[in-house]
Design a protein that fits this description.
This protein has two domains: 216 residues, Rossmann fold (3-Layer(aba) Sandwich); 166 residues, 3-Layer(aba) Sandwich (Rossmann fold), CATH 3.40.50. Helix 1 crosses helix 14, helix 7 crosses helix 10 and helix 7 runs parallel beside helix 11. The chain is globular, with a radius of gyration of 21 Å. Helix 1 links the parallel strand 1 and strand 2. About 2% of the residues have low confidence. Helix content is 36%, strand content 15%. The chain has 397 residues and is of the alpha/beta class.
Length: 397
Amino acid sequence: MAASNPHVLVLATADWDAPLWTNKQYVALELAREFRVTYVESLGLRKVRLSRADVRRVLRRARRVVGRDESLEGHRARPSGLEVVSPLALPFHGSVAARTLNPAILRRSVQAWGASPTRLLWTFNPVTYGLHQIADRTVYHAVDLMHESPRHYTGPILAGERDLAASNCEAIASSRIVARHLEEVGFDDVRVWENVADVQLFAEAARLRERRPTVVLFAGNLSPFKVDFDLLESVASIPGCELHIAGPAAIDGSVTPDISRLRDAGAIFHGPLAPRQLADIAGEAAVGIIPYLLNDYTAGVFPMKLYEYLSAGAAVVSTALPSLAGRESSDVVIARSPSAFVRAVRANLVLPDAATLLRRQGAAAHASWQVRGEAIRDAVRESFETDLPMLSKVAAR
């Protein structure tokens, strides 16, 4: 690693060892292949409740700060160039106490980054508490409409986005809807980077597993404000269908859903799975489903699971998310009603032939973290070498 390379601070909205990995961890991992990276775990942008889950989360953060939390040790490997920081910031964003204390808490937590000769801030969190002001360059990577997420601090989130826009930082959006929002708050030349996936892992699992025409998979967080549970129940009730559900329940702070009806309908719950375990189930599935509700939050969601399912060789059936407009094909069915969704699942409970598998995997081949990671590293390196805008380097990738 060259001495002139930037030290990258990834200000995340999820912990490194979160049950589901999304853009935050994967971007940090790809950056760490070449640069020194400090990954700052979630500052907690949703309002804390006196619930058992929130109390456990706060206590776990406190244990990690003092180095006594070993519950997730080894869950996710960390490359040698990546450090994980867990600041004990006040989660009451917008309060006078948070505005007063959190800037000092954060800067103390990332002293090594602050002392580096070249500093890049790659933030998924618009509430930076001034970290963007000491960075040589800042990229705001917006992966959803965070201000529309229930129980989040909408005011501080929108104020943070406007502050970042006014500072001329570069912006990435995970969907056209998110890009439109960023333009409305003041960003120029927003780059749309739709979510990608670990397609090599899923494609390999498809080669090694025996596909079964009865298996339907939903992989994701079981959030009541994202997932249509009535639709899941309808799928689980299809005769001859074996619905597998993989993922945690309400890790985003929403109310833990009642899944008893799904169990009664025959759904098989796996809970959070390691990537290889999830890929193995996907490799056996005939259909991968995206049963999302249509609301102000999901309007901005581009589901990473689209490419996970396709690279595993499964047909995809989704509700009509705005981010998937224009992507309908023989392999990706966009259902505009619950009955159409169920019919599409039924129709695809078959074993695909070799040509169909190759076509599906080919449709996902460009959407890999390998390709995206190379684009990210090239952009960072060339930007700091030439002093030109970073995202202009990846316009065609």
